[in-house]
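Retro notes (design track)

What went well: tokenization of the new backbones is finally stable.
What didn't: we kept losing track of which sequence belonged to which structure.
Fix going forward: every design gets posted as structure first, then sequence, in one message. First example under the new rule, 192 residues:
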């Protein structure tokens, strides 16, 4: 009986050692496109819907997010290939691409060479920057922000105009405050 148990243990050890052999796999290429769930295309207007699990990063700095996750040259070459298969002969002078999330959107216009020429942003109920929060806190003690909108536009990747429109409540009173970050510290508050 001892021999049977001994040989059983020995056989078990041999199988467990055999099961731990390393298997070499062939190399493979994996691509990952984290921010797009759906693409909608209308002539020179193209829309990409941003996934919710990265939407916080998108609303924090939409232009930076677009630059890091969108390759306009590949996109233009894809459209050119699609155009040749669809027998479409029109050459676009520019491409308008919209990136959308549940909080809002970034619309970017690219030249036919892929250069970013214009941007426009519109977001609702986002986390406002720290300097805007501090200004609201010091100027409106006792008031609570109930909702906000952020709009911005500019040439290239530079923002020329931006504004926060913030609705504040204090008990039964409410007011809307407009803050232009470039004018912070002077006449930043405009009331509706």
């Amino acid at each position: 009986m001892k021999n049977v148990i001994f040989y059983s243990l020995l056989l078990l050890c041999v199988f467990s050692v055999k099961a731990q052999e390393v298997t070499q796999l062939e190399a493979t290429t994996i691509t990952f496109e984290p921010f797009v769930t759906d693409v909608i295309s209308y002539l020179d207007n193209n829309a990409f819907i941003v996934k919710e699990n990265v939407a916080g990063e998108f609303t924090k700095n939409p232009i930076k997010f677009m630059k890091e996750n969108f390759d306009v040259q590949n996109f233009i070459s894809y459209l050119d290939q699609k155009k040749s298969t669809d027998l479409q002969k029109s050459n676009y002078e520019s491409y308008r691409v919209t990136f959308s999330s549940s909080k809002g959107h970034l619309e970017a216009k690219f030249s036919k060479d892929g250069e970013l020429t214009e941007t426009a942003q519109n977001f609702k109920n986002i986390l406002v920057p720290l300097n805007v929060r501090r200004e609201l806190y010091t100027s409106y003690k006792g008031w609570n922000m109930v909702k906000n909108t952020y709009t911005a536009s500019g040439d290239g990747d530079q923002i020329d105009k931006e504004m926060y429109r913030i609705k504040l409540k204090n008990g039964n009173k409410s007011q809307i405050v407009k803050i232009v970050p470039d004018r912070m510290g002077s006449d930043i508050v405009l009331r509706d």
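Added context from the reviewer: Strands lie at 36-42, 45-50, 94-101, 104-111, 116-124, 144-155, 161-170, 173-179, 189-191.
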